[in-house]
Amino acid sequence: MNIIQKPSPNFDDRAGQKPSIILLHYTGMKTAEDALARLTSEDSKVSSHYTVDEDGTIYNHVSESKRAWHAGQSYWRGERNINAISIGIEVVNPGHEFGYRKFPVVQIQAVQTLCKDIIKRHEINDVLAHSDVAPDRKQDPGELFPWKELAQNGVGEWPEPSDEDMVKGAGLNVPRALQDMGYEAFNKDNILIAFQRHYVPEAFKKGTEGHACGLTKGRLYALLARHLISTT
User: Fold this and answer.
1) How many domains in the chain?
2) What is the pLDDT of residues 64-110, one digit of tens each?
3) pLDDT at site 232
4) How confident is the model at residue 1 (pLDDT cuts 50, 70, 90)?
5) Based on the domain organization, do 16 and 73 belong to the same domain?
6) Rounded distance, CA 118 to CA 70, Å?
């Protein structure tokens, strides 16, 4: 794995915390050059540990031992200082504002390789979207990101609900179940949409995002019951 060093001045100490989350973003800027400039500019006050370009090039901005500034105001399972417990990876894509598009195969292969390498070296508990930890503010990396493919290759989780899971899921208290999973209880609609961006992308194809459909409940139940796809 070839990694190009492109340092950012925007980091500080983890204050004794260890990374337990990989947090995936899209850059949400018109070009990779714009994103790299922002992530490495002292004036921007933002950074990530890595950026993965569309051609698969990986840039390292901040040492994993340091806290990069990528999550912003966020929450997951009682923790609000997500920067302190995460490794942030920016994936080059213009995002919803500038022409959201599918992520190239070579780019996702690089993301997968990088994530697997990080997982080997740290006690990673969760591979999350920026929208998972900041559902009121963020959409990235969005519903086109291939979460299932990554999970099939050992990066993150993907629910595989059985017929029984679908039946049991139909009776879920969805807001409570999302809290049990790790989301913060404030804007229930945005939390549901964030969950669907990650685990039910079909809802966006059908225009039913924000609706707790049977598939959403079934996959949520399967996640909580740890009924997941097997990795290769």
Assistant:
1) 2
2) 999 999 999 999 999 999 999 999 999 999 999 999 999 999 999 99
3) 57
4) confident
5) yes
6) 17
149 and 165 both lie in a single domain: no
CA–CA gap between residue 35 and residue 129 (Å, rounded): 18
Amino acid at 103: F
Judge whether 115 and 50 are in contact, CB under 8 Å.
no
Q: Which of 48, 132, 62 is CA-nearest to residue 90?
A: 48
**Do 31 and 76 fall within a single domain?**
yes
One-letter amino acid at 90 equals E
Instruction: Enumerate residues 6+ apart whose C-beta is below 8 A from 206.
Output: none
With the C-alpha atoms ordered 87, 93, 96, 100, is the resulting torsion angle positive or negative? negative
Domain boundary among 131, 156, 181: 156
pTM over 0.85: yes
User: How many angstroms separate the most distant Cα atoms in the chain?
Assistant: 53
Please give the structure tokens belonging to residue 69. Answer: 């500034």
C-beta atoms surrounding 121 within 10 Å: 10
Cis peptide leading into residue 141 (ω within 30°): yes
